[in-house]
Design a protein that fits this description.
Mean pLDDT: 83
Number of helices: 8
Low-confidence stretches: 9-13
CATH class of the largest domain: Mainly Beta
Structural class: alpha+beta
CATH topology of the largest domain: OB fold (Dihydrolipoamide Acetyltransferase, E2P)
Number of strands: 12
Order of helices and strands: HHHHEEHHEEEHEEEEEHEE
Distance between the termini: 19 Å
Radius of gyration: 19 Å
Number of domains: 2
Strand order of the largest sheet: 5-4-3-6-12
Length: 254
């Protein structure tokens, strides 16, 4: 099965992340792998979350009792990606030999977009509903989770969206609203249940939450420490993540 194009682009543009995967495979420890790859522990997990979200199946799985703390191991899919990357390096070398000058490489670099959005979820178009100048795009994520995005009809045409098109849904962390699981969902809003995996407190602002969706994909969101305390929410607890369809940006491979 071919890799999603967004994941392929990240692999080509970010070889440090492949090095991280290689170190995880060798050492079975996220702590040691991050150090060997020249990354902080947090940066390593952010990179893994992003790659796992873009892949059809997780590349890295947590394990208990890892050597050196922070146990992690590559999944079968992760090892397959490593093998493909070795083949890709050979192709890259051939492309570099064929490039006429550096402007060719600069052009390729501009065509491979990176984004500041922390949350990037790989999915496919399940349905398109026209609503005047806008279209509501139904997306199916890994594990059968579904969300909606609202974009202009012109954007739908420009992205050449149709049923089955692979897309990346981009959602800024600040656009996510958190609520308790029993809170009513506002009409027209996306709602996903997620488990709090990590809370990073900030004495000068909201806490940063690392949330795991039912399908294993990761979201980053912010919440006031007092709100979390009031509702008894902490690591291991489940909450509701809401966001408007208009807050979902869509990207497709070039």
């Amino acid at each position: 099965m071919p890799l999603p194009a967004p994941l392929t682009q990240h692999i080509v543009r970010r070889p440090q992340r492949i090095a991280l995967l290689q170190h995880i495979d060798e050492q079975g420890s996220i702590t040691r792998a991050a150090k060997a790859a020249g990354m902080s522990y947090k940066a390593a997990w952010d990179a893994i979350d992003e790659l796992n979200n873009l892949a059809a199946r997780p590349l890295v799985e947590r394990s208990t009792g890892g050597r050196g703390g922070g146990g992690a191991r590559l999944s079968d899919e992760g090892r397959r990606v490593l093998r493909l990357y070795q083949r890709l390096q050979v192709l890259q070398a051939q492309i570099l030999e064929e490039a006429e000058d550096s402007s060719d490489l600069d052009l390729l670099g501009r065509l491979m977009l990176r984004t500041s959005a922390r949350n990037q979820l790989h999915g496919r178009v399940n349905a398109i509903h026209a609503q005047g100048r806008n279209d509501t795009i139904e997306l199916t994520l890994a594990g059968g989770l579904r969300i909606e995005a609202q974009i202009t009809h012109d954007s739908t045409q420009r992205l050449e969206l149709e049923l089955g098109t692979a897309v990346v849904a981009l959602i800024k962390a600040g656009w996510l609203e958190l609520a308790t699981v029993d809170a009513p969902v506002p009409a027209g809003s996306n709602s996903l249940e997620a488990e709090i995996e990590e809370v990073q407190e900030d004495p000068q602002g909201p806490s940063e939450l690392r949330l795991t969706l039912r399908n294993g994909q990761i979201l980053c969101a912010f919440a006031e420490a007092e709100w979390l305390k009031t509702h008894g929410l902490g690591v291991g607890k489940t909450l509701q993540v809401r966001f408007l369809p208009s807050y979902v940006l869509l990207g497709t491979p070039v």
